Amino acid sequence: MTRGKFIAFEGGEGAGKSTQARLLAQALEARGIACEITREPGGTPGAEAIRALLLGTAGDGWHPRAEALLFAAARSDHVERRILPALEAGKWVICDRFVDSSRAYQGGAGGLGDADIMALHQVGSCGLLPDMAILIEVSPAIAAARAAARDGDAADRIGGRGEAYHARVAAAFARLAEQQPMRFARIDGNASQELVSQAVLAAIGSLR
Ligand code: TYD
Asked: What is the model's pTM?
């Protein structure tokens, strides 16, 4: 059995990742490629429970280190119980966010640093990386408008952080993509859904 490919969608809030993940899975399925579509934080019952702890707005919130540990713990369960078994069964796994989100949010914007995030990832998930990370980049104005249309006043604990935090997230994603151009495809998410979807399909062409 040939191992499946692992593709992660990355980017800030309101970039359109979930829509594009769904469109990619549909396009691949139409070509006869079985896909497992999932998301982070979450994807297994245990990781979804941790998601509720991370994104819920009860209490005082998590210290950046505790936050990074919780994301790594959720990811560990997700990798072990869902992602690896699907890849080994020959399916393509399409994940809405993966470790590059921790590198950008907790490592870059949260100030933990990349080495600590990757150390946690090594412990939690044996350092598993996607075959390709698709980084969808949108202007701050478009991102804010889409997030407001989706969430209204009900942003989660991390999405609701200020503009400066989200600007640091975007800069951290851009830096990661510059450092690892072979592993990242950078896509302009300001265009229409159809155009973005075509660009995603072109980007993964090299994997098939
Ligand atoms: P979600 O609503 O799934 O994301 P989006 O707004 O992209 O649709 O919420 C996930 C939140 O968790 C989002 O604000 C990004 C954040 N996050 C991290 O800070 N670190 C991580 O490792 C992951 C996977 C997500």
From this structure: 0.96
